[in-house]
Amino acid sequence: MQKPPAGSQTFLSESDVPMTNEEIRLSEARDRTRHWKRWGPYLSERAWGTVREDYSAEGDAWNFFPHDHARSRAYRWNEDGIAGICDRRQSICFAVALWNERDPILKERLFGLSGTEGNHGEDVKEYYFYLDSTPTHSYMKYLYKYPQDAFPYAQLVAENRRRGKNDGEYELLDTGVFDEDRYFDVFVEYAKGDVEDILIKITVTNRGPESAPLRLLPTIWFRNTWSWDRTAVRPILRGAPGSIELNHPALGKRRFYYEGSAELLFTENETNTRRLFNARENGFCKKDGINDYIVHGIKQAVSAESMGTKAAAHYALEIGAGKTVTVRLRFTNLEFTPSTAFAEFDAVLATRKGEADEFYATIIPKHLSPDAQNVMRQGFAGLLWSKQFYHYVVKQWLEGDAGNPPPPVERTRGRNHDWPHLYNADVISMPDKWEYPWYAAWDLAFHCVSLALVDPDFAKEQLVLLLREWYMHPNGQLPAYEWALGDVNPPVHAWAVWRVYKIDKKKNGRGDREFLVRVFHKLLLNFTWWVNRKDAEGMNIFQGGFLGLDNIGVFNRSDPLPNGGHIEQSDGTSWMAMYTLNLLAIAMELAMQDPAYEDVASKFWEHFIYIAYAMNHLGQDHMGLWDEKDGFFYDCVKFPDGTHFPVKIRSMVGLIPLFAVETLEPELLEHLPGFKRRMEWFIQNRPDLTENVASMRTSGMGERRLLAIVGAEQLKRMLEIMLDEEEFLSPQGVRALSRRHRDHPFTIAFDDKEHRVDYEPGESTTGLFGGNSNWRGPVWFPVNYLLIESLQKFHHYFGDDLKVEFPSRSGKMITLSEVATQISRRLAGIFLRDEKGLRPVYQGVPKFSTDPDWKDLILFYEYFHGDTGQGLGASHQTGWTALVTKLIQKLDFHGPSARG
After folding, report:
1. Which positions ≥6 away from 588 have C-beta within 8 Å?
2. Helix or strand run (H / E) with residue 689
């Protein structure tokens, strides 16, 4: 068995620090000398109910391919499974299937409610946890909790359908199926003996009071490509002594070894048209063949010849109360006998686990409490487990496949028809592999910041990927997400590029200039698209549209306004101001070695000045987005007749102007004389634009210059509102909507219809954007993270001289840096045990607080209750919520009392 270089030979990083074995693997993967990332957790947790699998005329993805079809219907684009892995092209897949002898179907995939079934949109109704993963997936660990009683499929659907928007969600624990701990803990561990040699250990513990049966079916199969491509060579699985032999036209021959006594079952990964569509066909060996054999005893449902394209090793177990059973497997391109395949198994697994500990010891500060270290480790695990092979070729999807029924003609003008160039077949970081098993442009930007802490190369690859010509639209727009590729997300890609570049530079001692140049030119195309499409009147005020904040406004910001007109958006304009500063920072970094970039830097500096001026002085009547009386920024509605009025909702929309801030170091300006000369000329000759924009004439701490939409007095007034616990500041961070709207809702009438915004700290009570997210009161990590970063930048300029009350009206004055730290502590505290041993994220769920087999398991939700910190929305959105790892890394948590 080959192993990465270790022991006798010491490998050093560029900073002359000895590299861990995982870092060596990362280096080999980057240099493509050994492909350690070829196999990973790239299998989705839900492929049914996705846009890719929807071939309906009306675009009804949830009902065209429902959960009930998933066990019987071959997927066109992506596979799914529990605790699964696959190669980076998803040719071969492995996952775990289970049966408790009571369920109506095999547990082959996670169950959840569709967007139309849940009272708050789609929602997975299972308990599973990402416990560990290295960046190369040389070691991974996953936990699934499987009930011993019949899984309450119908009960979950019926009760959630009965409940309304004002009711809480009905969860799996609420059904009583976990009472008396009658469930199995199913742990799945992976360790790579080599690039193509994967050891798999499944450990099942009966947590219940009595012995219980379990059918365990480790399953291996080929993604079906032959049904859509007549030229594709069909791969094959065959039974052999102690193993399953695989032959794939691209990946060649390999074996799947299983230990102990197991029954091999084979079928075909093809659609059971008889069951789904009452079709007449020959043969019974279909995708659901193993299910029908195990659950219904239909012997002809599996192959009598022990061959097919889907196979499982069937273990019939009886596990005593509190007892544990272990099954060992090996998927490899190496040849063994059944007796030698597991000779080094335990030693390799222990080595890889130890190397994972060694690697994370370089990332996770040792001074942190064990609880904080555990949160960080599981945060990284969730982030890395959330990689997925994402496959979507719009042209083929619209036109259909040869030998298959042609898609309805309505699709030629339907969803995503204007993105025919899009060709996606890559491993991409997902927001949540069940609830959001598709990439989202602005989510991905935040993922990359956390990913850069453990795998800067993958973070950079992801940022480059979305800018490639088979992703980016020819007009320069980035694809938003598969439900509407042409929707508009906040332009944070440049911010992520700059942050990842700096994290990588700090980590490796030098910046990846080639990466920066490569993305900068593509970002210029995207910036031009924004300017041309979203600045309707050429006044540097941007409409933007949806901008990712779902229901934050009084109107659906993706639709035309009542009575015509448009919204001049505080957040849309602020995002663009931030975008200009991000591009300015990148241009100045590049200009340090190539003076040609100085002119580009000047262009973005001046563009920022125009936007900042417009935010405060819009039009001839000087009505900007800043409200001097309130000390806050608001959206402005403008109608065709020229009338306009501010939409006085105190929301994150009015705080986003804080994100547009950058400091210019004096040393940098001295190195860029052309830029400095142009800047000084502009300040001197255009006082009408620069006098009231930030602090252009006054140097700050260390002779720095400040670029910001808000000046010192505006900043103080905004923070007085933001840091008020009766407004934005919650015990767990900054709310997306002020709490004052609980008693003072915003209302407006158009066409005899009242439009209203209330403070809703929990789940949404509206159906906007499916009703599965809520920006009217909860705490969201991405915008909180940007607020923290902005406060740090303001402190970098103003220093300790500028202090504000924290919280407002407390009389306690602290610096902006200390404010950033306090908000960070509140956010991190969502996941950490408090003095009572409780985690706010699990508010109201005692099992997660007291049960020893649950209390150290962390779920990183999509957003959090604005008053309690309870986790809400998607339960496995470790993507942008993994930003908590970056926050904890910089904080000092020694124990529960240090949460802050």
Report:
1. 597, 601, 664, 668, 672, 675
2. helix 687-690
Q: Name the β-bridge partners of 390.
A: 426
Task: State the pLDDT confidence band at 642, using cuts at 50, 70 and 90.
Answer: confident
Distance (Å, whole) CA 382 – CA 81: 16
Show the CA angle centred on residue 570, arms to residues 565 and 573, nearest 5°: 90
Give residue-wise pLDDT tens across range 755-794.
889 999 998 887 665 567 888 999 999 999 999 999 999 9
Helix H or strand E segment including 566: strand 566-568
Can you give the pLDDT at residue 14?
Answer: 60
CA distance 814 to 282: 76
Q: What are residue 57's phi and psi, to 5 degrees?
A: -70, -35
User: pTM (2 decimals)?
Assistant: 0.95
Q: Which residue has better confidence, 502 or 279?
A: 502
Q: 24 and 177 in contact (C-beta within 8 Å)? A: no
Write out 58-109 in H/E/C secondary structure: CCCHHHHCCHHHHCCCCCCCCCECEEEEEECCCCEEEEEEEECCCCCCCECC
Helix, strand or coil, per DSSP, at residue 408: coil
Name the residue among 584, 578, 449, 579 with its Cα closest to residue 504.
449
Residue 883's φ and ψ, nearest 5 degrees, are -55, -20
Q: Coil, strand or helix: which one is 806?
A: coil
Q: What is the SS3 assignment for 258?
A: strand
Residue 711: pLDDT over 80: yes
The C-alpha angle 543, 440, 637, rounded to 5 degrees, equals 15
User: Left if phi > 0, otherwise alpha if psi is -120 to 50, otherwise beta: which for 270?
Assistant: beta
Q: How many CA atoms are closer than 13 Å to the CA of 733, on its beta-carbon side?
A: 34
Contacts from 242-248 at CB under 8 Å and sequence distance 24+? 242/337, 242/338, 242/339, 242/341, 243/338, 243/341, 244/220, 244/311, 244/313, 246/92, 246/220, 248/91, 248/92, 248/222
Where is 331: in which H helix or E strand? Answer: strand 324-332
Which residues fall within 8 angstroms of residue 861, CB to CB, at 6 or more apart?
841, 871, 872, 873, 874, 875, 877, 881
Q: Which of 31-45, 50-64, 460-474, 749-763 has the lowest mean pLDDT?
A: 749-763
Residue found under tokens 């767990």:
732
- Taking alpha carbons only, the member of 76, 91, 75, 108 closest to residue 42 is 91
Q: Give per-residue burial for 147-183: e unless 16+ CB within 10 Å, then b.
A: bbbebbeebbbebbeeeeeeeebbebbbbebbeebbb
Q: What residue type is assigned to position 514 of the chain?
A: E
The single residue listed with the structure tokens 């934005």 is: 728
Q: Kindly state the tokens that stand for 393.
A: 């070729």
| pLDDT category of residue 683 using cuts at 50, 70 and 90 | confident
Which of 485, 496, 431 lies closest to 459, judged by CA?
496
Q: What gap in Å lies between CA 315 and CA 326, rounded to an integer?
A: 11
In the chain, the percentage of residues whose pLDDT exceeds 70 is 92
CB 72, CB 286: distance < 8 Å: yes
Q: Give me the chain's average pLDDT, please.
A: 92
pLDDT of the residue at 689: 76
pLDDT confidence of residue 2: 47
Report which of 471, 429, 478, 479 is spatially closest to residue 450, judged by C-alpha positions. 429
Residue among 77, 82, 88, 84 nearest 32 (CA): 88
DSSP character for 518?
H
Cα-only R_g, the chain: 28
Q: Return the axis-axis angle of helices 673-685 and 596-616, rounded to nearest 10°.
A: 30
Residue 571, SS3 per DSSP: helix
Q: How many helices (H) and strands (E) does the chain have?
A: 24, 34
CA distance 331 to 548: 41
| 166's tokens | 């004002």
